[in-house]
Automatic annotation (TrEMBL):
InterPro entries: BUG, Bug_dom1
Protein name: Tripartite-type tricarboxylate transporter receptor subunit TctC
Keyword Hydrolase: no
Protein family per UniProt: Belongs to the UPF0065 (bug) family.
Regions that span the bilayer: none
C-alpha cells in the first residue's frame, strides 16, 4: 500500500469515527430545551385534543416539556410552514395528516412546500369520519339526506358542506360525495373542525364529513346535531350506536378514514429522529394516552419501525394524490 493511500484511509477512518461520535453526542443531548408540538388548527378541535392527550406522556419520555402550539389557517399550511422555517433540530414537531402535507400543496397555489419536505417519525392515530348534519335538516339517514339534497339542487338551492379548508381531506370528501351522487353541493371552508362544528350547531351549514370526536356524542344526545352515519366498513366499539355508511342504499362504498402522525423536517439528523421515534413509540403504549385517544374515538396507531414509517408515508402520499386527481383538484 502506498503512503498516500494509507494516509487517505487513516483520514477517512478518523472522519467516520468523528461522525459516529458526533451522532452519539447529538442523540444524548437531544432535547436540550422544551419541544414545541405544532397543531395546525385552532384550539378545541380533534387535532388539539389529540395533542393534549399525548404531550404530557411524550414529555416524560423526552425529559423536557412538550408545549402545544395552535396555529390555524390555509388548511394547516401556516403551521406546517412555521415548522419548515425553524431549525432542523427536532425541537419543533408537526402533528400532521394528509390534509396539510399532501393535499394542501395540491389545492393552494401559494403553498411552496411539498409533502417530501417532511419526514414522518411515527403514526399516532386513525380518525373515524362521521357524516354530521345540522339538527333541523329534514333527514334522519344518509339516503334521506341525499333525496333532500337532490330536491334542493333541482330547486337551485344546493346544500352546503363544511371543510377545514380548500383541498383538505374533508373538502375532497364533500366534492367526491357530490360527484359520486351527481348532486350539486356548495363548499364552505373553515379554519378548523371547531369553527365548522360551531356553524353546524348553529345550522349555518348543512353537513360536515368530519373527524369524529367524543364531543359529537354529547351534541347528538342533546339534539344539537344529527349523526347520519360513520364512514366505516366495520362497526367500532366507540361508535357502535351509529349506522355504518355501508348500510345505506346509495353510498355503500363511501368508506374513508384518515391518519395523524408526528413529523419533522426531512433534513433533521438521523440520531434525533431515532430519539423522537423511540419516545413517540413508547408514548403510544402509555395507558393514559391509549385511553385518551380511545375516549376521543381515535383508533390508536400500531407503532411501526422507522423504516416502515417512511414507506407508509410514501404510500399515503400516492394514495391521496390519486384521490385529488380523481376529482380534478385544481390549485387556487
Amino acid at each position: 500500500m502506498t503512503f498516500c493511500k494509507r494516509r487517505f484511509l487513516q483520514h477517512s477512518a478518523a472522519w467516520f469515527a468523528g461522525l459516529g461520535l458526533a451522532a452519539g453526542a447529538m442523540a444524548q443531548s437531544f432535547p436540550a430545551k422544551p419541544v414545541t408540538l405544532m397543531v395546525p388548527y385552532p384550539a378545541g378541535g380533534i387535532s388539539d385534543v389529540i395533542a393534549r392527550t399525548v404531550n404530557n406522556a411524550l414529555s416524560k419520555q423526552l425529559g423536557q416539556p412538550v408545549v402545544v402550539e395552535n396555529l390555524g389557517g390555509a388548511n394547516g399550511s401556516i403551521g406546517a410552514q412555521k415548522v419548515l422555517n425553524a431549525p432542523a433540530d427536532g425541537h419543533m414537531v408537526f402533528q400532521g395528516s394528509p390534509n396539510e402535507l399532501i393535499l394542501a400543496p395540491l389545492a393552494i397555489s401559494s403553498i411552496k412546500f411539498k409533502s417530501e419536505d417532511f419526514r414522518l417519525v411515527q403514526m399516532i392515530a386513525t380518525a373515524q369520519i362521521a357524516f354530521l348534519a345540522r339538527k333541523d335538516i329534514p333527514a334522519n339517514s344518509v339516503d334521506e339526506f341525499l333525496d333532500y339534497a337532490r330536491k334542493m339542487a333541482k330547486e337551485g338551492k344546493p346544500v352546503t358542506y363544511a371543510s377545514v379548508g380548500p383541498g383538505s381531506f374533508y373538502h375532497l370528501l364533500g366534492e367526491h360525495l357530490s360527484k359520486t351522487t351527481g348532486i350539486a353541493m356548495t363548499h364552505v371552508p373553515y379554519k378548523g373542525a371547531a369553527p365548522a362544528s360551531q356553524d353546524l350547531i348553529a345550522s349555518q351549514v348543512d353537513i360536515f364529513l368530519g373527524p369524529y370526536g367524543k364531543m359529537y356524542e354529547g351534541l347528538y344526545k342533546d339534539g344539537k346535531i344529527k349523526i347520519l352515519a360513520m364512514l366505516n366498513k366495520t362497526r367500532e366499539e366507540s361508535t357502535k350506536q351509529y349506522p355504518l355508511i355501508t348500510e345505506s342504499k346509495q353510498l355503500k362504498d363511501f368508506d374513508f378514514n384518515i391518519w395523524t402522525g408526528y413529523f419533522v423536517k426531512k433534513d433533521t439528523p438521523e440520531p434525533i429522529v431515532q430519539v423522537l421515534h423511540k419516545a413517540i413509540t413508547d408514548t403510544l403504549s402509555d395507558p393514559t394516552v391509549h385511553a385518551g385517544l380511545e375516549a376521543s374515538s381515535q383508533l390508536t396507531a400500531k407503532p411501526l419501525p422507522l423504516a416502515a414509517v417512511g414507506k407508509a408515508y410514501a404510500d399515503g402520499t400516492a394514495q391521496f394524490r390519486a384521490i385529488a386527481k380523481s376529482i380534478d383538484l385544481q390549485a387556487q
